[in-house]
């Protein structure tokens, strides 16, 4: 839900321990499996330097070849199994918080919206990717 600070927050609770969730979120071989909002998109490549000042590049493409883009940013904060903060190439800030309770892990993403698409569309798109992540992790 968008809030007064001009950010959007999406979240999910995953029926899996934090160690598994963190590994699936941060390792390129896993990122390639879940990083899409719908089945007509995929991530053919993912590079992730999980260090403060490190960069990531996730290539996202339409399966029909009609469109593709690099989702790229630089990590500002890396607290293992707790918090990731990064800045996208368009200077928008994103934070991803992880918390475990009773064998489940809550993932909360907060990000600054871009100006091309509506807040509702951005929230729905990021939530769809997060929902796909949950589905992927729970199948592991």
From TrEMBL:
<comment type="similarity">
    <text>Belongs to the AHA1 family.</text>
</comment>
<dbReference type="Pfam" id="PF08327">
    <property type="entry name" value="AHSA1"/>
</dbReference>
<dbReference type="InterPro" id="IPR013538">
    <property type="entry name" value="ASHA1/2-like_C"/>
</dbReference>
<protein>
    <recommendedName>
        <fullName>Activator of Hsp90 ATPase homologue 1/2-like C-terminal domain-containing protein</fullName>
    </recommendedName>
</protein>
<dbReference type="InterPro" id="IPR023393">
    <property type="entry name" value="START-like_dom_sf"/>
</dbReference>
<feature type="domain" description="Activator of Hsp90 ATPase homologue 1/2-like C-terminal">
    <location>
        <begin position="15"/>
        <end position="138"/>
    </location>
</feature>
């Amino acid at each position: 839900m968008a809030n007064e600070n001009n950010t959007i927050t999406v979240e999910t609770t995953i029926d899996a321990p934090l160690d598994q969730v963190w590994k699936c979120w941060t390792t390129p071989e896993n990122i390639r499996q879940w990083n899409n909002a719908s089945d007509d998109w995929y991530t053919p490549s993912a590079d992730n330097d999980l260090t403060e000042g490190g960069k990531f590049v996730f290539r996202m493409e339409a399966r029909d070849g009609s469109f593709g883009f690099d989702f790229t940013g630089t990590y500002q904060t890396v607290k293992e199994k707790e918090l990731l903060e990064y800045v996208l190439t368009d200077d928008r800030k994103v934070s991803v918080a992880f918390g475990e309770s009773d064998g489940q892990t809550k993932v909360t993403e907060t990000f600054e919206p871009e100006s091309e698409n509506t807040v509702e569309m951005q929230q729905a798109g990021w939530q769809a990717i997060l929902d796909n992540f949950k589905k992927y992790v729970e199948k592991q």
